[in-house]
């Protein structure tokens, strides 16, 4: 059964929790192992875009199936809670490129609020170094290094996909 089909059952919260945790475990240790369609849904969504992608797909499916706003909110809140509980695992998987995510998603996984992320970007544009800004938020050096690798990789990918600069002559 696909993941959404399990959300109609009693105990769906425990099922979602278990699926999320098992998916992280498989992504870390054996990411190509088949584990059933529900786990494979979760693994693929996490791998392609992190928790934001999981929430996006589940929300779309719940809306299509006519879930109540309360149930949709409860599912999204549980995913936020799970993301926070497993923050270190998620950050590690992002740093090792198992979970691909935009830098904004990475900062959210580190526990930064959206307004803090905007503040971070503003400070970068003012010329402050990444390390200086990250330390001001209390991030430890190991997480700063992981963040730097992810952001560098993201910029490298962006740069490769940009059209060549026009010849000024």
List keywords for this structure.
disordered C terminus; 169 residues; single chain; mainly alpha
Task: Describe how the helices and strands are arranged.
Blueprint: H1 3-6, H2 12-29, H3 37-64, H4 69-85, H5 87-95, H6 103-109, H7 114-125, H8 130-136, H9 141-161
3D structure, described in words:
The protein is mainly α and 169 residues long. Helices cover 73% and strands 0% of the residues. It has helices at 3-6, 12-29, 37-64, 69-85, 87-95, 103-109, 114-125, 130-136, 141-161. Helix 2 packs across helix 3 and helix 3 runs antiparallel to helix 4.
**pLDDT averaged over residues:** 82
Radius of gyration: 18 Å
Tally the helices. 9
Shape: globular
Low-pLDDT residue intervals, each spanning 5 or more residues: 165-169
Please give the number of β-strands.
Answer: 0
Major sheet attributes: none
Distance between the termini: 61 Å
Order of helices and strands: HHHHHHHHH
Judged by helices, strands and strand pairing, the structural class is mainly alpha
Please estimate the helix content: over 70%
Q: How much β-strand is present in the residues?
A: under 5%
What can be said about this structure in brief?
This protein has helices at residues 3-6, 12-29, 37-64, 69-85, 87-95, 103-109, 114-125, 130-136, 141-161. It is an all-alpha fold and 169 residues long.
């Amino acid at each position: 059964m696909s993941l959404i089909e399990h959300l109609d059952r009693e105990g769906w919260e425990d099922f979602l929790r278990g699926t999320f945790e098992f998916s992280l475990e498989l992504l870390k240790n054996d990411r190509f192992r088949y584990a059933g369609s529900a786990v494979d849904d979760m693994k693929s969504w996490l791998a392609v875009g992190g928790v934001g992608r999981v929430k996006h797909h589940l929300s779309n499916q719940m809306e299509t199936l006519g879930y109540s706003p309360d149930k949709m909110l409860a599912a999204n809140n549980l995913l936020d809670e799970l993301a926070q509980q497993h923050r270190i695992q998620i950050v590690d998987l992002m740093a090792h490129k198992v979970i691909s995510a935009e830098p904004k998603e990475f900062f959210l996984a580190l526990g930064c609020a959206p307004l803090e992320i905007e503040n971070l970007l503003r400070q970068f544009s003012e010329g402050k170094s990444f390390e200086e800004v990250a330390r001001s938020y209390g991030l430890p050096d190991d997480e700063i290094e992981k963040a730097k690798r992810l952001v560098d990789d993201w910029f490298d990918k962006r740069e490769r996909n940009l059209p060549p600069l026009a010849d000024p002559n």
